[in-house]
Design brief:
Bound molecules: iron/sulfur cluster
Number of helices of chain B: 1
Strand content of chain B: 35-45%
Oligomer: heterodimer
CATH topology of chain B: SH3 type barrels
Distance between the termini of chain A: 30 Å
Shape of chain B: elongated
CATH architecture of the largest domain in chain A: 3-Layer(aba) Sandwich
């Protein structure tokens, strides 16, 4: 049995769920919990967790999908690179169909105007460069703290192996500053934050303490299996009932207080913090990662003289509000009408981790499409 | 982009003469693949599990750690608020 299957078992999930229902009866205030990780969003839908929770608990999705928080101007930058006659853009698959101001990478490729290939790892992009000396391989470095060290390691390998035809578009982002900015928005009334499992494995659980100190917001770090998510929600509910916010680590098998020091060192060796533009949230100080001066030769923006421009997000697309948890996807006038996974208008409908795509694929809260827990658990039993 | 399922390490490989392996061969449900070890918190031993992201191991998981995590959740589901150190429990 795989190690994580144990965290899907009914014997573990049912008692956690029952406890959530029991504690929820003691709770007098509405409970609005944001999950800030696209993988959580998808897992919550896939396992039907929304349908199993007491109705007083509302789950909101936050800015946790790295492709979705990348503004249209930065998507355009990737398109510009892909159109360059010497370039093959090697990218994670999610980026291919995200619309820029003039269509997506997939559109441009279909018209023969751009070269772009999907890779699974930045190291695959480096291998592609090694094997094709006649082209420039460009990797769009889109991702959070979990992805950024993989890109740092790849840049270091390119440096060591003196590979001259590999570069990155440095667009990676870091989470803590964005969360502070998000929570300063008074419109967003949150009672708890389900903190991302694998970003936290890198940055450590202690990073969330300022959210507790500044905003009195309860935080729980959780993994991605059903029991992980239920334990995280239970911890947040307990905090609310006891009236005391803190950081609870419900994913200790992967997350420590300090995080992954080797990965942090790798990141700091290659990247330096820089101001960064987020879709929906605007510009946030020190929330982006630029290449340090020793590694400037791997910056595709400089090498190919790409120029970023401020372009407006698609009119009527409400991705910005969806990413801030202010709007649920079905409240967007385009949702399911002109915007579907087959013809997406905003990134949230494209990415596998996008909130709109998750809603579309798994249905809204009323759909009883739960799988793992639902097979074993009847809502009437508690 | 996250592959949440941990995979078991079945082989380790060094690419240089150094003491530390840079590559692990991992397996889950009959699928084998090679992953990089540059950013993992601790180099895994054969038989241990790793959490993988974008072709890199990001965390080595000892089986006992998973067991402890399971035990923690079982305790949470019971009435053990007085424990104090449990997630969701209060110190008082
Ligand atoms: S449904 Fe489409 S247009 Fe509306 S917010 Fe989501 S991605 Fe944007």
């Amino acid at each position: 049995m795989n190690l994580d299957e144990r965290f899907r078992e009914r014997e573990l999930c049912t008692p956690l769920l029952e406890k959530i229902h029991r504690i929820s009866r003691l709770n007098t205030r509405p409970m609005r919990i944001m999950e800030v990780c696209g993988t959580h969003t998808v897992s919550i839908f896939r396992h039907g967790i929304r349908t199993l929770l007491p109705k007083e608990i509302t789950l909101l999705s936050g800015p946790g999908c790295p492709v979705c928080v990348t503004p249209a101007g930065h998507i355009d930058l990737c398109l510009q690179a892909a159109r360059h006659p010497e370039v093959v853009l090697a990218t994670f698959g999610d980026l291919m169909r995200v619309p820029g101001s003039h269509g997506s990478l997939a559109d441009a490729r279909a018209r023969g105007e751009a070269r772009a290939e999907v890779v699974y790892s930045p190291m695959d992009a480096l291998a592609m460069a090694r094997q094709n000396a006649s082209v420039q391989v460009v990797f769009p470095a889109i991702g959070f703290e979990t992805t950024a060290p993989t890109i740092a390691a790849t840049v270091l390998a390119a440096h060591q192996q003196k590979i001259g035809n590999f570069s990155i578009i440095p667009l990676a982002k870091t989470m803590p500053g964005a969360l502070l900015q998000l929570l300063s928005d008074d419109e967003l009334e949150l009672s708890g934050l389900l903190c991302p499992g694998h970003v936290s494995a890198i940055i450590g659980a202690k990073v969330y303490q300022p959210l507790v100190d500044h905003f009195g917001l309860g935080c729980a770090v959780a993994g991605f299996e059903p029991a992980d998510i239920l334990a995280g929600l239970l911890a947040l509910l307990q905090q609310q009932v006891h009236g005391k916010a803190r950081v609870d680590n419900c994913y200790p098998r992967a997350v420590t207080d300090q995080g992954n020091i080797r990965a942090q060192n790798l990141l700091a060796q290659v990247f330096a913090p820089v101001e960064s533009e987020w879709r929906g949230l605007g510009s946030i100080a020190a929330s982006g990662l630029a290449l340090r001066s020793e590694y400037q030769q791997f910056d595709a923006v400089k090498r190919l003289q790409l120029s970023a421009s401020q372009v407006p997000d698609p009119p009527a697309c409400r991705c910005g509000s969806v990413l801030k948890g202010l709007l649920q996807p079905p409240q967007c006038p385009l949702y399911g009408r002109s915007c579907t996974p087959l013809s997406p208008i905003g990134p949230c409908m494209v990415s596998t981790e996008g909130t709109c795509a998750a809603y579309y694929r798994y249905g809204d809260d009323t759909a009883a499409n739960f799988t793992t827990i639902g097979n074993h658990y009847s809502k009437n039993s508690c | 982009m996250c592959l949440a399922v941990p995979m078991q390490v079945v082989a380790l490989r060094c690419e240089d003469d150094g003491p530390e392996p840079q590559v692990a061969v991992v397996e889950s449900a009959g699928i084998r693949k090679e992953i990089r070890l540059e950013m993992v918190d601790r180099i895994p031993e054969l038989g241990e599990y790793v959490i993988i992201h974008a072709g890199f191991a990001i965390r080595t998981l000892a089986v006992e750690e998973a067991e402890q995590n399971l035990a923690l959740m079982r305790q949470m589901a019971e009435m053990l608020e007085q424990e104090g150190r449990l997630p969701g429990a209060m110190e008082e």
